[in-house]
Design goal:
Elements: H1 5-9, E1 26-30, H2 35-40, H3 51-58, H4 73-81, E2 84-88, H5 102-119, E3 123-127, H6 129-135, E4 144-150, E5 153-158, H7 170-183
Helix pairs in contact: 3-7, 5-6
Length: 193
């Protein structure tokens, strides 16, 4: 499946619905949907994104979904049955996350806190330290478990899986994502870190 640039541009500012189980153990929160994600209606769907390869490498999910075409019902069920939810700090789709302003990220952080409380999530992992620093006004924050909670959930910050974050390998991401998964009580199916 492929899209032309003009097809992708037609999804600018579109939103992608949260993928959320009734009782989430772990919610991954991306920065915002990319245009490919908006076009497929599936989070982290760009073919160069390493989110799902990292989840599979960590043993958080048992198999790698065909995410670039958009998650099918079986893939969505696999995540939901594991207690994994996916949302975004900002719901508006852009070509690049750096198109978002600090005020938009801050508003997203405030909305996210309310959402997390409503979901009753055990653990939340913000995917991208720069967005976390800006949205939550934590300029010196580092990747890992944070000292504060978010809406009653344990809060983690993990590396961004985008292909633009090339210095982080799938194995690096898998180790980072396994930590909040273990904290959420998700049984990992393979050894990571």
């Amino acid at each position: 499946m492929g899209f032309t640039r003009s097809e992708l541009e037609s999804f600018r500012d579109a939103a992608v619905d949260d993928l959320m189980p009734e009782h989430p153990k772990l919610v991954f929160v991306g920065i915002n949907p990319g245009l490919w994600t908006a076009a497929t209606g599936s989070h982290f769907a760009h073919p160069g994104n390493r989110f799902y390869p990292a989840l599979a490498a960590a043993g958080i999910i048992p198999r790698l979904p065909d995410f670039a075409a958009g998650l099918d019902d079986a893939d969505r069920r696999m995540l939901l049955e594991a207690g994994i939810g996916i949302s975004n700090l900002v719901h508006r789709a852009t070509a690049r996350a750096d198109e978002l302003g600090r005020a938009e990220l801050r508003a997203g952080a405030l909305r996210l806190e309310r959402d997390v409380e409503r979901w009753g999530a055990a653990v939340v992992a913000i995917v991208g330290v720069t967005a976390y620093r800006q949205g939550f006004d934590r300029p010196k924050a580092r990747v890992g478990k944070q000292d504060e909670a978010l809406g009653g959930a344990e809060l983690w910050v993990v590396p961004n899986p985008s292909g633009l974050n090339a210095h982080a390998t799938v194995d690096d991401l898998a180790r980072a994502y396994a930590e909040p998964a273990r904290a959420a009580g998700i049984t990992l199916t393979s050894k990571s870190g």
